[in-house]
Amino acid sequence: MAQTTLAKALNNGLRAAMERDPKVIVMGEDVGKLGGVYRVTDGLQKDFGEQRVLDTPLAESGIIGTAIGLAIRGFRPVCEIQFDGFVFPGFDQIVSQLAKLHYRSQGKVPVPVVVRIPFGGGIGAVEHHSESPESYFAHTAGLRVVACSNPSDAYWMIQQAIAADDPVIFFEPKRRYWEKGEVDPDADPPPLFTSRVVRPGSTLTVATYGPMLKTCLSAAAAAETDGHDLEVIDLRTLSPLDLAPVVESVRRTGHLVVVSEAPSESSIASELAARVQQEAFYSLEAPVLRVTGFDTPYPPSKCEEDYLPDLDRVLDAVDRSLAW
């Protein structure tokens, strides 16, 4: 077991998958010689060659379309979208082709493509570099959508996504790339499409994913000083949503706060709130509360600290829920 950053854990996970299966191909803008803008693919082209780590033109539609063709011929392409807001030129290929082929062919033509998307804010970037577009993809039947939040999950989830026969949209919290955690390459990882209780508690349930997990764990530690024992759940999978641990937790605590960077309207957070109120209504002692980004375009970097959910906003929601 070793301490490593989330970015390095992804690199090691990609390397392990490529060593295991020669059909795994990494492709995207600047993923080869540069090693990606976040260095997630650093060293892979040197070790596996230009035929397996491909620097592509700046054309997301072409990247996804080429990956679909490769998948049909038996390869397992891993596409990197350089920044979250750059995925939209390839959106048509993803939702109209990639998501549909396995179903359209009655299961005869799997398309095991992984689309890696660094997402979220907190890095002081310019416009189109700090989006949270996960709801678009979770809404689309035929796609699997996951979000890692720590180095251990990053290492295992990227390998599991590559091994899956369905297309997987793989969200990576870019402001957590350089944060360290323990990774045990000999561990028995949880299944890919499952959520996980990362901090047991009895007073109130907090459900979150991706970059907000660290914020929620900090809020839980702060709430403990006030005598509140928060249970924190990392969703990990956004489509399909694994709600069983959340519903089970809410039936014990009676309170739920959902935290996400994305805007609240028509979001993962709103879907989670609706489903929990449907399945655990009589266990709730207060409405499900959401702490999210605002329903506005992502602001300039000087304003993003006011836009992103922080510890104080999470604690305020906790206090409002418990005071209901």
UniProtKB/TrEMBL annotation:
Q: Which domain of life is it from?
A: Bacteria
Keyword Electron transport among UniProt keywords? no
Which InterPro entries does the protein's record reference?
THDP-binding, Transketo_C/PFOR_II, Transketolase-like_Pyr-bd, Transketolase_C
**Keyword tags:** Oxidoreductase, Thiamine pyrophosphate
Q: Which cofactor does it need?
A: thiamine diphosphate
- Coiled-coil residues are none
Transketolase-like pyrimidine-binding domain span: 4-179
Keyword Oxidoreductase appears in the UniProt entry = yes
By its UniProt entry, which PANTHER family does this protein fall under? PYRUVATE DEHYDROGENASE E1 COMPONENT BETA SUBUNIT (PTHR43257), PYRUVATE DEHYDROGENASE E1 COMPONENT SUBUNIT BETA (PTHR43257:SF2)
Annotated protein name in UniProt:
Alpha-ketoacid dehydrogenase subunit beta
Q: Which organism is it from?
A: Pseudonocardia adelaidensis
